[in-house]
Design a protein that fits this description.
alpha/beta; Rossmann fold; 2 domains; seven-stranded mixed beta sheet; globular
């Protein structure tokens, strides 16, 4: 490890439901093949809101959250995802999903379903800190033209790439996305790259305006879905596939009712642990119900390429960059729904 580094750092510690604060902690110790990354930006994910509220079985306090991150390598002897050796000063985006590479799911190229998967910021300390320890193979060097903070979009975009793969909408087909939060917007970006017509819903006029800027074909309020001038006018008979990017009882039911008979409803939102569904309707209409979790290495690479190629318009425009000390207030804003930001990212430097 670089001997010039301080051996303590600032970290945002989640200590229990609705409780977090910044404190000084020891620098992470590197395992073999890991690098120490100085975090330039780390986005707040919607899944971390349920963790913050104490509603996530994946996260146990005390814990440093944060898994949507990019930063600068400062120490470590490892090989990066592109096969090159890690170099101090190199800017990288972090794939936070650790997998074993040897179980049956990994062998089936379903590394996101690895039997021993771990997520940085859940099973081990995350990126809401000055430094984070990461296996070198999970770090991808950034092109010079991409602002480092913009790379926080790669992880949510990778989630969306996988959800859109599951939706399997053909070019010219119609995809309905419920929820214009960061994941819903990323689904629009991923679907557009495949030639689908995209319809997106949200309660917020600001989010719907953002969706139009991201290239959504049409925007609707949830109440408009069932009207004759809503989904029926845009996709008579229903959408070819629906992605629920919210994950509450109402949107899950809407997804099932809004897809064509024989279509696919993809659940990626994780808010409500359980939801009642119209099972007989699912059977009679042969609606395929598919869960979508995280991403494979290939999905992450696709998302990286999509971002680098301009798949998200003006990616920095949609980020609200805040210091680490603003973390507690930012989580409160997101819980209470008072934030106007498309994506809040913390800057621990």
């Amino acid at each position: 490890m670089n001997s010039n580094l301080d051996q303590v750092m600032d970290a945002l510690i989640w200590t229990g439901p609705r409780a977090m604060h910044v404190e000084r902690v020891a620098l992470p110790k590197l395992a073999p093949d890991e690098v120490l990354v100085e975090v330039d930006a780390a986005g707040i994910c919607g899944s971390e809101i349920s963790g913050y509220l104490g509603q996530s079985s994946m996260r146990t306090p005390p814990l440093v959250l944060g898994h949507e991150a990019a930063g600068t390598i400062v120490a470590g002897d490892a090989t990066l995802s592109d096969g090159t050796p890690a170099r101090a000063g190199e800017q990288v985006v972090i794939n936070p999903l650790l997998t074993c590479g040897t179980c049956d799911r990994c062998a089936a190229r379903l590394s996101n379903l690895c039997r021993r998967r771990q997520l940085i910021g859940a099973a081990r300390p995350g990126a809401f800190a000055r430094y984070v320890a990461v296996p070198g193979q999970l770090c991808t060097p950034l092109p010079a033209a991409l602002p480092i903070a913009a790379a926080v979009w790669v992880e949510p975009l990778a989630c969306a790439v996988r959800a859109v793969r599951h939706a399997a909408v053909q070019p010219g087909g119609t995809l309905l996305v419920l929820g214009a939060g960061p994941i819903g917007l990323c689904c629009v970006a991923a679907a557009r790259s495949g030639g689908a017509t995209t319809i997106i819903t949200d309660l917020s006029d600001a989010r719907l305006a953002a969706a139009k800027a991201w290239g959504a074909s049409y925007t609707l309020k949830p109440a408009q879905l069932a009207s004759e001038h809503g989904l029926a006018a845009l996709a008579p008979g229903g959408a070819d596939a629906v992605i629920d990017a919210v994950g509450v009882h109402g949107t899950r039911s809407q997804a099932v009712r809004s897809v064509v008979p024989g279509g696919r409803a993809v659940f990626i939102g994780l808010h409500d642990e359980e939801s009642p569904l119209a099972a007989n309707y699912l059977v009679r209409q042969e609606v395929a119900l598919i869960g979508s979790f995280a991403y494979t290495v290939e999905d992450f690479a696709t998302a990286f390429g999509l971002l680098a190629a301009g798949g998200i318009p003006e990616p920095m425009r949609w980020l609200d960059l805040r210091p680490l000390a603003a973390g507690p207030a930012s989580f409160i804003e997101l819980v209470e729904g008072t934030s106007n930001a498309v994506k809040i990212a913390l800057v621990p430097r």
